[in-house]
């Protein structure tokens, strides 16, 4: 079955090969990922309409960074938050709790787990928690005005179901891009 298939050991092998590079090269790659993530996240505010379709791809640089190195993934996550704070503060509420948190969660899950179901579940749980914090703690209408700011079990279940399906897609996207990038980065 799809969900219980193991992910190959390519991630662990690429992490070992990536550690062989100089610290300068690893930092430069991390800085590149931070710039890409910040630019993609800011697209939602800079390009109204089309930008909202581009901004979810800010997950990919954080996810790829965490797949190559946990330290680089965490560094990329926090530096992207800092860069958004400086350049585009209006996107600061969304990134740390949704796209960034999901990217770092899936990337870390790739390092610790092999089964797709567990990797997808970790990302889904973190995305659900992030969305619920925005909705119920900060009263930020991340899902629009149609979702009430009062807690509902139906809403929470719907958010988790969406997050699970969304993370299925992101795991496959991450594996596709990771296979393309690992040949450039590891050699």
UniProtKB/TrEMBL annotation:
Transmembrane segments: 27-50, 62-88, 94-113, 118-139, 151-178
Keywords for this protein: Membrane, Transmembrane, Transmembrane helix
Name of the protein this chain belongs to: Uncharacterized protein
Source organism: Pseudobacillus wudalianchiensis
């Amino acid at each position: 079955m799809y969900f219980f298939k193991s992910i190959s050991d390519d991630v662990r092998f690429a992490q070992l090969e990536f550690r062989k590079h100089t610290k300068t090269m690893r930092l430069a790659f991390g800085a590149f990922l931070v710039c890409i993530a910040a630019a993609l996240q800011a697209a939602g505010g800079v390009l109204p309409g089309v930008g909202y379709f581009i901004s979810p791809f800010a997950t990919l640089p954080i996810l790829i960074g965490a797949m190559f190195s946990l330290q680089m993934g965490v560094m990329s996550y926090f530096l992207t938050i800092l860069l958004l704070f400086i350049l585009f503060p209006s996107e600061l509420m969304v990134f740390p709790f949704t796209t960034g948190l999901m990217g770092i969660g899936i990337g870390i899950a790739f390092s610790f787990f092999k089964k797709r179901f567990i990797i997808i579940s970790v990302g889904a749980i973190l995305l659900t928690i992030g969305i619920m914090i925005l909705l119920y703690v900060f009263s930020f209408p991340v899902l629009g005005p149609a979702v009430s700011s009062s807690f509902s079990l139906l809403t929470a279940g719907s958010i988790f179901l969406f997050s699970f399906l969304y993370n299925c897609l992101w795991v496959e996207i991450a594996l596709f891009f990771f296979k393309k990038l690992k040949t450039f980065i590891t050699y």
